[in-house]
Each structure stands twice: as structure tokens, then as C-alpha cells.
Amino acid sequence: MNTRWLHIAYLQLLLAALCFSHALAQEKLSAYPAVIHIHSTISQADYSPRQIIHLAQDKGIKILVFTDSLLRRWEYGLPLLPNIFKFSAEEGSIARYGIKRYLNDFKKIKDEFPDMLILGAAEVAPFYWWSGSFFKKNLSLNDWSRHLLVIGLKKEEDYRHLPVVCNKYFFPRFKDVPSLLIAAILIIPGIFILRKKQKKILGVLICAAGVLFLLNSMPFSASRYSPYRKQKQYLPYQDLINYAAERGGLTFWAHPRITEETSWGRFAKTVNFSTLKYPEALTRTRGYTGFGVGANRDLILAGEEWDDALNSYCEGARINPVWVIAEADYRGGGRIDFIQNMIFLPAFKEEFVYDALRAGRLYIRYYSEDKCDI
Hints:
alpha/beta, seven-stranded mixed beta barrel
């Protein structure tokens, strides 16, 4: 980074420190320990939400942000009619558990533990894409682990219509009109052709094509992008970020420096799951709240993509800065408080947690062998 960028970065840090100290003085903010990015038995982790809460209570944690997986469903369809002739697999997730049930459970849990702030959110994989061939045994499901944490959505329908591949619904929306029109263009003329005795076979074929096209479109996908049409760069992810922002939600890129290469699940012998690290997501998307770092304190993004994102904010190319949070990605085992966010709140209320995350009013605290490193 050249001297000009260093001056911009230092100026930003100075202004942030001045604003933060002013806020502390004016609002009398207090710091509360929080753990963000927690999985429970809802998405195949070891402990139930209540068990996790009790573990956190023992460690003095005051704020928990549960981010169970929204959807863990994968489909591989045959050419031409992939939604009719397909293989599929699904594992535990919020969608499988039931979105309404999930939200209602957390309402009850919040009442049971009034001395803690417990937020229900979701870890979301907006898109994946296929490469290779099932028959050549080199089939690969790519970018499944490019995840975003979506925090702050309140309504059931907000979760239900998140633009995610394999998140489907039956009643068409405005974006589904082209599919319906194509089916109608085939079926209606086909019916007229059927009336002509000499062209009945042609009419049957046209009607059948229209019906098959309609059935292949239903149920409709909440995502605009097909997993069979190769990589879409960051368009599906930007759709999710925009969707959440329009509904008052916060989005954080999860584990952007993690590479995952593995084969697992019911397709373990024939399908490779591949996700390369994606720090470029910080510069190729807009409007997200921040990104997460794990217990290894991998802040190598400082001086690289994170600085680029902050510089673009300083230059007016972004409407909001990019914050960093500590993500535990807790699934059971080990201590739940090994990496924490100390969040500054004017009062111990849920809405102030969202405000603090949006404004970056926090710092990260990390524990190593019962010693605290800040």
C-alpha cells in the first residue's frame, strides 16, 4: 500500500476512534461478551440451543447469535429437464426443521433466559454450480461453502424467500412470468393444432413440450441463477445481500479465507465438494456489513482486500464501511467462548445489538489455553 493509502487508512482510524470515544461519553456504552456463528442440532451440530445457552452462561457470555444453516439441499438433474429427472440429497437445516417452528422456538427461548440476548439468524449458501460428469466420475459441486451470515431478519416470509439455489416455492411470483408465458406459448397453439385431424400428432407433441416445460419450472426457484449454467461470479451473492438489506438485515461474509476440498454425504464416492478461499468477495460485492475471522486470528486481509474495501469507502465508492467480527463457527466440543466479540450497547436490548453490529461497535477477544489475548 502506498503512502497516500496509508494516510487515508490512518485518518479513518483516527476519525473512528474519535467518534467512538465521543459515543462512549455521550451514550455511556457498556461492553458485553458475545459469541457469533453458532450451529445447533437443527443443522447437525452436537448440542441443542438450550444446551449451548447453558454452556455460554457458565462462561459469562451475555449475547448469542445462532446461525444454523438455512438450507442444506443439493440437486443434480439430467440435461433438458433437470428439475424432473434428478438426484437429490438433504441434511438438517432451518428449512428442514421448519422456518416458522424455528422462529417460534427462539421466541420461547428468549423468554426462558431473560438475562441473555439470544438472536436467531442463518448461515446461507446462496449458490453452487456443477462441473464435470456423473458418468465420468469427476462430478464436482463448486462453491457450496461460500457462506454469508444473515442476521436481523424478523419475518417468516423473509426467510422463506431468500434468493438461494434449491429454495423453492409453488405459487409463482413476478419473476416467474416468463416461464409461464413460454409454457402458454407452447400449450395454447398445441390445443388449436389438436383440432385439425391431420395434425393431431404435432399438436400432442407441442402440448406435451409445453406441459413438460411447465413441470420443469415448478416448484419455482427463489434464485435467478441455475447451478447447471456454470459459475456466476458474485451475482447470486449480491442478490442475497440486497435482499437482506431491503428487509433491514445484516450480512457478513463467513470464513472467506477457508478452502474446502472434500467428498462426503450420500454421494461421497462420486461427487467432490470444492470451495476455494474467496477473500475477493470483499471487493466484488457491495452493501454487506462485514466479514468474519476465526480463532486463528487470520487478519491477513488487512493490507489486502479489507484495506481495498475500506479505501473505496473513504473515496466514496461505497456507502458503508466494512467491519470485522469474530465468528466462532461453533458446532460442539471445545470451549464456546474461545473467540468473542465485545459489543458496546447503550442498553441491554436486542435492537441495540443490531445497531452495534451495523456500526462496528465491538472488538474481538480471543482465548488460548485459558489465557486472554486481545
